[in-house]
Write a structure and sequence with these properties.
The complex is a heterodimer of chains A (370) and B (146). By secondary structure, chain A is of the alpha+beta class. Chain A is built from 13 helices and six strands. Chain B is α+β, with helices and mostly antiparallel strands and 146 residues long. Chain B has one domain. The chains are: A alpha+beta (370), B alpha+beta (146).
Chain lengths: 370, 146
């Protein structure tokens, strides 16, 4: 069978693009980017995390353009990201520098600094609130005034910085102390990954993974496809300051850095008990699963910590412990791109398959006649 | 005032103070824009708390600008698309690098602004800390709770 080159569809494609615009505008209404930024916090956080670029403005714009479709918005952000120069690398950000807005532990009731519930859906009735149909700006402003006027002159002393729960376990010797490792991380956006991967590559891929995919695999790990049953040692949501070494001098002193702003992240450490042999004796201690992502996306961060722990135990024969299985299938752009390509014309390959099917049928009919 | 503290105050303060300082420099000295405000990315290097290793968390969208005040260079870098602010920050940076007389006057204003920022953050924190759980031990007979 020979190939036949064909062309066509240009007008239809142009009309399809107009139709897409029509679908977005047909009710004669537009949503402002600023409104998306103010009112769609959860979606923005998810898009920034999966798009792997922190900008609430750009995420809101992508959401508007994609009509709220997360995979399309993520694609738009990643595509825009690829056009921008990488100007600098930040100084290493330490989790202890987080200004904490929410912090809970499922492992300990009493933790230094306390359990701070912050803002979360965990404590509300998950019932549709029909009053929101008629929410007015006047009511909102009134509520905001009432809420904020209860401010006090008392100044909390913690400045939002709280000790880590896992450090308590380390001090008790229930967890192995780890040496600080300053090895430069690998960058999966610059170099293709090779298996087995390094920890830095795994964490980078997990943190930019698609929320649903990371959650599904994390769930599978707990449900029976992995040998982990974690406890959330600590879950924090808060802001991390971003500093750069001053680019116009060799000075790298702590006080000579540039502050460029802050990023909100969710960070989770899950504790997984495991048995280790030491001097011929079985010893139980905790290993840690680490999860972190842009914005407030607690399910994703917990699931990431579960998968991180699974991938540290790659000798276990199970899909969620197989780094290729996990890391190659959780990226939103790669997964949706490959699935979407099935919509592209496969006329020649399908004709070839059709020919094979026809020949098989013909052969069968011929055999039946004999 | 050291760069870290100064840039923290200026970025957290918003455009007004930076514009005021930058205006003084523009008025009193020859200014050349070496690099127009340009969008770009900063890769976040993160230290994870499980094994104390470094990895890349993702990138942050920024605006960067470079200027020259007299013979001295300055750079301004700020999160998101903020061309004016990046320009002001670059001018202020150059002014400090050149040790201009104006910077001495700015110190008191920066300190005052820092106090305002700290007070605002403390107030926000006060509201937030209302969500801190106050556990009360219950008298439960014949069983433990999870």
């Amino acid at each position: 069978m020979g190939y036949v080159a064909v062309k066509g569809g240009t007008t239809a494609i142009e009309e399809s693009i107009k139709r897409l615009r029509y679908e977005r505008l047909k009710d004669g209404r537009v949503i402002e980017v600023e409104v998306i930024k103010s009112c769609m916090r959860g979606l923005i956080d998810r898009i920034m995390s999966e798009g792997s670029i922190y900008s609430r403005d750009l995420a809101a714009l992508a959401i508007k353009q994609a009509e709220g479709n997360p995979e399309e918005a993520t694609f738009l952000l990643r595509a825009y990201r690829s056009t921008l120069p990488r100007m600098h690398y930040s100084r290493p950000i330490a989790p202890k520098d987080m200004c904490v807005e929410r912090r809970i532990s499922s492992a300990f009731k009493d933790i230094p600094g306390g359990q701070i519930l912050g803002a979360a859906y965990d404590y509300v009735h998950r019932l549709l609130d029909f009053d929101l149909y008629n929410e007015s700006k006047r009511e909102i402003l009134q509520w905001l005034h009432l809420y904020t006027e209860t401010f006090s002159q008392e100044v909390p002393e913690d400045h939002g910085k709280l000790p880590k729960v896992i450090d308590l376990l380390r001090r008790e010797g229930l967890m192995t102390e780890t040496e600080r490792d300053d090895t430069e991380p690998q960058d999966v956006t610059r170099d293709n990954i090779r298996f087995p991967t390094r920890r830095s590559e795994r964490l980078q891929i997990l943190t930019r993974g698609e929320t649903g995919a990371v959650t599904a695999l994390g769930y599978a790990a707990i449900r029976g496809y992995g040998i982990v049953h974690p406890t959330v040692g600590e879950l924090r949501v808060g802001y991390l300051p971003v500093h750069l070494d001053y680019p116009m001098a060799n000075s790298q002193t702590e006080d000579d850095v540039i502050y460029i702003g802050e990023i909100q992240v969710t960070e989770v450490e899950t504790l997984v008990p495991e048995v280790r042999e030491e001097n011929g004796k079985a010893k139980i201690e905790f290993s840690i699963g680490y999860g972190i992502c842009y914005g407030q996306n607690e399910t994703k961060a917990i699931a990431m910590s579960v998968l991180d722990n699974c991938l540290e135990k790659s000798h276990i024969n199970s899909p969620v412990h197989d780094e290729e299985f996990v890391l190659m299938h959780i990226d939103c752009v790669e997964a949706t791109g490959f699935i979407s390509h099935l919509k592209l014309p496969h006329y020649v390959t399908f004709q070839s398959e059709l020919d094979s099917v026809r020949k098989t049928r013909e052969g069968k009919q011929h055999d039946e006649k004999i | 005032m050291q760069r870290k503290r100064r840039t923290t105050i200026l970025v957290k303060s918003g455009k007004q103070l930076a514009k005021l300082f930058a205006g003084e420099i523009i008025q009193n000295y020859p200014v050349v824009t070496v690099q127009e405000p340009q969008n770009g990315l900063i890769m976040i290097k993160m230290r994870e708390s499980a094994q104390n290793k470094l990895f890349y968390l993702g990138e942050v969208f920024v605006t960067e600008c470079k200027v020259q005040v007299g013979n001295v260079l300055g750079v301004g870098i700020i999160q998101d698309d903020q061309p004016e602010m990046a320009y002001y920050l670059a001018l202020i940076d150059a002014a400090y690098n050149a040790d201009l007389a104006e910077t001495k006057r700015w110190e008191a204003m920066l300190t005052e602004e820092e106090n305002r920022i700290m007070a605002r953050e403390a107030q926000e924190r006060f509201t937030l800390l209302k969500t801190t759980v106050n556990f009360e031990t219950m008298d439960v007979l014949g069983g433990a709770t999870n």
